[in-house]
Amino acid sequence: MLTSKSRLDNAYKNAKQLAFDDNSKFILFSDCHRGDNSFADDFANNRNIYFHALKHYFSEGFTYIELGDGDELWENLTFKSILDAHKNVYDLMQLFYNQQRLHLLWGNHDMVYRDPKNVEKYLYTYFDERMGEVMPLFPSIQIHESIVLKHAETQQELFLVHGHQADWWNFLFWKWSRFMVRVLWKPLNVMGIADPTEPAKNYKEMIKIERRTKKWIVANNNLITVCGHTHRPRFPEPGDIAI
Known about the structure:
The chain is α/β, with parallel strands linked by helices. It has helices at residues 4-13, 47-59, 79-85, 87-98, 116-124, 168-172, 174-190, 203-219, and strands at 16-20, 26-29, 63-67, 102-105, 125-128, 133-136, 143-144, 146-151, 157-161, 224-226. The chain contains eight helices and ten strands. The longest helix has 17 residues, at 174-190.
């Protein structure tokens, strides 16, 4: 069984490379968990502020990078229900994509995107019921496990990854977790009962995942790493581990 170190090593080794310079502008989001606008949709309460923020970043020329778990494909059986619920958001993301300013990573909740066939099935096109025809969404898009931003002059690197690579259960047994979420935790979530297997809602598990990630960063010359998964905001002080 691969260790968290091996999984992070592989993600770094196989990362998509993106060059940047002092004039580049990026905006990074993670763990949006866009759902179907039901009571279990954690994104629904924040979609308006998210939309207006993204609209601002689009008009200001930013490149949008999403660090996984953008689409909630554990609670929802199909992407169509998510697209129908938040069509204006995907229309805006499409504008980024058409200008080659959209890069998506997969996380554990949208791990199905690891398979290019599922990416094509869900994201290349959609059926517009109003127009009565198939329309392009993100044609030919590729979704990666990770990205390395590399400065064109200094060669400094920033490693972008979802972060569940340090969470052996949600990386290796994500299908079982997805099953449990759909049949058990989604109905309980509607009643206000949190899923204790989620690191974002389990403090002890969160600390373990962060500790494994920090250990990997230190072993890789304090490589600046940006990740999500635990839902806990953290920005290092000068001299701290670069996560």
